[in-house]
Amino acid sequence: xxxxxxxxxxxxxxxxxxxxxxxxxxxxxxxxxxxxxxxxxxxxxxxxxxxxxxxxxxxxxxxxxxxxxxxxxxxxxxxxxxxxxxxxxxxxxxxxxxxxxxxxxxxxxxxxxxxxxxxxxxxxxxxxxxxxxxxxxxxxxxxxxxxxxxxxxxxxxxxxxxxxxxxxxxxxxxxxxxxxxxxxxxxxxxxxxxxxxxxxxxxxxxxxxxxxxxxxxxxxxxxxxxxxxxxxxxxxxxxxxxxxxxxxxxxxxxxxxxxxxxxxxxxxxxxxxxxxxxxxxxxxxxxxxxxxxxxxxxxxxxxxxxxxxxxxxxxxxxxxxxxxxxxxxxxxxxxxxxxxxxxxxxxxxxxxxxxxxxxxxxxxxxxxxxxxxxxxxxxxxxxxxxxxxxxxxxxxxxxxxxxxxxxxxxxxxxxxxxx
Amino acid sequence: xxxxxxxxxxxxxxxxxxxxxxxxxxxxxxxxxxxxxxxxxxxxxxxxxxxxxxxxxxxxxxxxxxxxxxxxxxxxxxxxxxxxxx
Lengths: 419, 86
Hints:
The structure holds two protein chains of two kinds. By secondary structure, chain A is of the alpha/beta class. Chain A contains 14 helices and 14 strands. The two termini of chain A are 28 Å apart. Chain B has a single domain, classed as Non-ribosomal Peptide Synthetase Peptidyl Carrier Protein, Chain A, CATH 1.10.1200.10. Chain B has helices spanning 3-17, 32-35, 40-54, 69-79.
């Protein structure tokens, strides 16, 4: 196994930092709006209706598509592409990078996705149904819209990026996986600037709602804002949401050279696999994943100030993740635990990246945002540092560990250090 | 359908497939591509919309007939004679 040197002993050219954040979330279209919502208990979940499935609830984004895309490009592309285009512009603007003078051939685009293509395929089948299933009216846009690299490709096309672009299919661990891919490509000198994170258009496919409903894992509640309730005794499933979060990642040497604002350094990461079930998580593997990320960061559990959990609000999933978190952080008195899905639902491919962004601001304001809707804590989800319903101010925050897990037993964790 | 109605059909389709373009000064005799940002996928959109909306089939070898408004209307007039304006 490759040994991982201490992050601060690496040359600056091998250290990777976050210098820009662009996001759209059901409760905010900038990092500032998102963070304010997380500190003020503002949910982004609302009533929603989709063909065939009917009335349900979802996290819906209201970013301005026209801000960075022509009408034609938005029409020709996909919702995931539009989410990506919005996020990448916001991230580059936020980073202060001199984009006009950036060598586009040295920019890499690494976008995590849970799934891609379902929205367009469902739409086309719906369309040909009106023509007695005559496939001659099947759109010639179908293939470029549904190829797996579409969201990353639209980002590259929109900005004239000629370096590598692709998506990372990693179920709901994809946001972290995108970040990890970006970091690795910078270390391998495949690019000088990595656009990395994740996006989701999943609320536009009825199949995901119907699939979770058939699985008994789709959240329902009279009040949509109360539907996503990880760790609560009365949680009853997932709220499907759309969203996106892309980061600009740079080598520390490059960030320093341009005196960039630095949100944090990615000092540890891990991805592993349960290999036990299609759907049910395995807390032993999840805890191994977290421990591996800590070990690569050369820190101990008690060094971590915030654990951003993946918990989606399902009965088994939350309890098993809490078991895993307890195994790693159970003895750490100074580690606080929170969850952003309680506010925005499950943004699927974006979740890992988006949820991390909501916590990164804590390095500056030293406030741990809570997990909301915990009216009656499930004893199986009892964690000593769980921040329930109200934000908590603490003395200092140096490390954040961000969990993101997905179906087919994919686990991921990233560790970010305050600079 | 009369030629003037066919022209309106094409304008309607162009409005959908090139929503950022101003079509008010579109010249009938000048190629679409010299006036509008259209690529091959956009021309396929015209073909597809004619098929969907009016069951008009434009075979591939006839695609050059869709170069300008004038040539398009000329080409479609006999094909759409029985079509009813929607």
